[in-house]
Amino acid sequence: MGNFIQQLSERVSVIASDRLWLEDSAIQQLKTTAQLTHMSSVVGLPDLHPGRGYPVGAAFLSQNHFYPALVGNDIGCGMSLYQTDLAINKVKLDKLDKQIGNLDEPVDEDEWQQLLDIYPDLSTRKQLVAEGLLAAGLDLLQMRSLGTIGGGNHFAELQITDRVDDAGSYKAANLHNKRVQLLVHSGSRGLGQFILRQHVDAHSHAGLASDSEAATDYLRKHNAALDYAALNRAMIAARILRRLRCNGELVLDVHHNLVTPVQADGKSLWLHRKGATPSDQGLVMLPGSRGDYSYLLQPKTENGAVSLYSLAHGAGRKWQRTDCKDRLFKLATPDQLSRTEFGSRVICADRALIYEEAPQAYKNLDSVLNCLLGADLVTVIARNKPLLTYKTRGECC
Ligand SMILES: Nc1nc2c(ncn2[C@@H]2O[C@H](COP(=O)(O)O)[C@@H](O)[C@H]2O)c(=O)[nH]1
Ligand SMILES: [Mn+2]
Ligand SMILES: [Mn+2]
Questions:
Q1: Is residue 397 part of a domain?
Q2: Measured from the CB, is residue 77 less than 6 Å from ligand 1?
Q3: What ipTM score was computed for the predicted complex, to two decimals?
Q4: Which one of 204, 218, 232, 251 has the fewest beta carbons within 10 angstroms of its own beta carbon?
Q5: Helix axes 109-118, 213-243, angle to 10 degrees
Q6: Which GO terms describe its biological process (predicted)?
Q7: Nearest CA owner, ligand 1 atom 4
Q8: Active site residue 313
Q9: 3-state SS, residue 42
Q10: Is the pTM of this model over 0.80?
Q11: Does residue 155 have its Cβ closer than 6 Å to ligand 1?
Q12: 193: domain CATH number?
């Protein structure tokens, strides 16, 4: 187990192995972040990769101050998983594209009424999100993006279970391997980006003292963005389920970009997660790419302290977006890249994005999973494979 938890310095550790490639630049960003004034410890997860200034796939613990820049601009980005009642053998792959239609367009009044007929609780949630935005001094116009996925690595994916490792936990989670599952990855859209920009304009990248007015102001906005992001995922799922004429039960919904207050030994600590899935909130989903498996995991909370109660949130990028087309265009056309080894399809109107989000652009998920298993942080409940992935360029984050 020891080899999988590598202590690089007093404050810096990584969950990794000799067989998992982590870029030097990402490790360097991790070490630089550990030097911030109020930082206690940082951990790089096996999907660690370089980000804008700070690495992605990492958790950071600070004392008395916290750093909004360490949450990043897509506050509340996360994954939600739904078990649908759509039988696998009823799915007609060729028809799904038309059935699902366009998810880039905001939800209009007609569609909203149709969603409410099926999911009346969305109305209360939307009202609460609006109240949260108003209380935080944010513009209600941001609500317009609710129900849209957003660009880049965000996605909605229909999946099927191809292996169950822990039948008891699988059943307890109300999962069904003869029925389609829906995994949604999205966040707070332009809202999170606006909040971070506003913060950086006023305070640059400085930490905020726990009891300061600026901290209270940021946290009010951050918490509104978390609720917004969770509702956004719920609305994306509702749109898809309605269009597929099936029902869906929520299995999990977990943010991977957030900051959380932690009380320990009378100290005021802050746990930042930037592309890191909390391991202390129940089941988690570890997706690879649109051409790789996803794993449903049971975190082992008893070992959580070594990784700051955080897990990898995916496979992590291997190639920069700007390199993908050059690397791939001689090898495959966008049409070829839209079909995967699993026989699954990709809906993506943007041809450039098909290259940027190609499975080859991501690390191998099994090598990431092996580190989590080696460090004794998780057990595997089931493995899913993709059936259909919806990706869009969308606007912003
Ligand atoms: N199953 C799929 N997994 C995907 C897809 N696109 C990206 N990914 C994985 O999700 C994480 C998300 O990372 P984030 O930093 O944007 O939050 C990423 O590391 C990939 O491993 C997909 O289309 N399907
Ligand atoms: Mn995001
Ligand atoms: Mn994300």
A1: no
A2: yes
A3: 0.99
A4: 204
A5: 80
A6: RNA processing; RNA repair
A7: 289
A8: yes
A9: strand
A10: yes
A11: yes
A12: 3.90.1860.10
